[in-house]
Amino acid sequence: MRTHDTTTVHPVAVVSGIGSCLPPRVVDNDAVIARGALLTDPGWIRARTGIERRRHVSPGTSTGDLAVGAGRAALASAGGVRPDLVLLATSTPDHPCPATAPEVAHRLGLGTVGAFDVSAVCSGFLYALAVADGLVRGGVCAAPLVIAAETYTAIVDPADRTTAPIFGDGAGAVLLRPGGRDEPGAVLATDLGSDGSGRAAITVPGGGARHPRHRPPPGPDAHFFHMEGRAVYAHAVRRMTRSSEAVLRRAGWGAPSVRAFIGHQANQRILDSVGDRLGIAPAHRYGNIRELGNTAAASVPLVLADPAVHRAVVPGERTLLTAFGGGFTWASTALTWPDVTPLTEEPDTGQPTEHADDGPPADHADTGPPTEEPNTGPSAEEPDAARVSTATSALAPAFVPSSPL
Q1: Is the pLDDT of residue 53 over 60?
Q2: Residue 98: is the preceding peptide bond cis (ω within 30°)?
Q3: Which domain holds residue 222?
Q4: Were 110 and a residue from 78, 105, 271, 367 both cysteine, which residue would form a disulfide, CB within 3.0 to 4.6 Å?
């Protein structure tokens, strides 16, 4: 096993492995319409969101199953390094209680390592990455495994025209290690933010302490995912743009120097707007929304895991990640492009098995209301079709080459 110099006075987290896991079931726009008897057509969905197809889990496949697959792939990508911590970003856990991460760690054969969930909806992966980076810098851990996994088909109403066409299922993961700032894959700066006044714009109203299941629900569809598309669009563009600007300042980078821009894959027009406002050339924007839809917290690591993007971006080049999610929450990360080979695995639907030997862990100023914008979902007026860029192709089971957004 290779060893790395961690004697730097202030080490940073470096990406040492990347993995992904996607359900094999591909669902195109025609199938989504038929499943929910939606009053729309495939071309309308494609023009409004940039989405042509997405992945759905089969009955019996859970978020944890996807997380185990992505985590195992990331560990193989890193050469079999043993993690000493597992963070799982998800808003669709296997159970309200306990957290899903400990079972994922158990199924990965990691024994009694620390493990916990991070819930920041679509910003979850970048929140978890920021936490893991801080723990590495502080010397708390040396090999955190950061996974983002979602099964939004579990909470989206198939008959809801504003959300059913948008979301898909999937998982992505990265393994980190301590290293130097000049290494490929080094996490150099982060920015986190939230605004709880927007909590009702992206929500599942029922099932929590506010509206327990044993009491009458606040509405007939209270246990489904709800989204106020217009408000979300406006906030997403503004918050991701300003968060990106903040993290670029912290990294000491100008936007034109960014060679890989990956935004949360929510809506193609949102991605276009953020990229345009930042001044990042379209040739340096990457994504997979056309093939995978919106996979919530998993969307950013799934783009990171696309081998076609790795063929297009040179290790060490400046990379900007940004996301926006429910809460509201938002986050951005500046890192250099990793020098790793991403791997993928099928979902692991097996039950947990006993781990015989725990073994040692690895060594160690925003003002004013947002302007009104088109709905994130397919419920607002038609956009100019010329504004919809071509999104990248998707991953696994056989990776398909992708192109810039």
Answers
A1: yes
A2: yes
A3: 12-346
A4: 105
Whether 389 and 286 have beta carbons less than 8 Å apart is answered as no
In a domain, 6, yes or no: no
Q: How much of the chain, in percent, has pLDDT values that exceed 70?
A: 82
Q: Please give the backbone phi and psi of residue 180, each rounded to the nearest 5 degrees, phi first.
A: -100, 160
Residue-wise DSSP of 280-331? --GGGB---HHHH-B-GGGHHHHHHT-HHHHHHS-TT-EEEEEEEETTTEEE
CATH number, domain with residue 281: 3.40.47.10
pLDDT at 370: 39
Query: For residue 154, is pLDDT > 50?
Result: yes
Paired tokens of 317: 């080049």
Catalytic residue among 56, 226, 235, 264: 264
Mean pLDDT of 300-308: 96
Output the pTM of the full model: 0.84
Catalytic residue among 122, 284, 310, 375: 122
- From 29, 267, 288, 294, the catalytic residue: 294
Question: What is the model's pLDDT at position 202?
Answer: 75
Q: Cis (ω within 30 of 0) for the bond into 397?
A: yes
Amino acid in position 264:
H
Q: Rounded to an integer, what distance in angstroms lies between the CA atom of residue 241 and that of residue 191?
A: 12
C-alpha to C-alpha distance for 262 and 183, rounded to whole angstroms: 20
56 contacts 27 by C-beta, under 8 angstroms: yes
Flag whether 355 is in a domain: no
Residue entry with tokens 């708390």 = 140
Question: Residue 137: pLDDT band by 50, 70, 90 thresholds?
Answer: very high
Active-site annotation holds for 267 = no
Does 122 participate in catalysis according to the annotation? yes
Q: Tokens 């783009």 appear where?
A: 303
pLDDT value of residue 90: 98
Decide if 235 is inside a domain: yes
| C-alpha dist (Å) from residue 384 to 48, 75, 76, 289, 388 | 9, 43, 44, 18, 8
96 belongs to a structural domain: yes
Rounded distance between C-alpha atoms, residue 321 and residue 300, angstroms: 7
Q: What percent of the chain has pLDDT over 90?
A: 68
Distance CA(346)–CA(264), nearest Å, equals: 23
Q: What would the mean pLDDT of 220-230 be, rounded to a whole number?
A: 76
As for how many domains the chain has, the answer is 1
For the question of residue 97 being annotated catalytic, the response is no
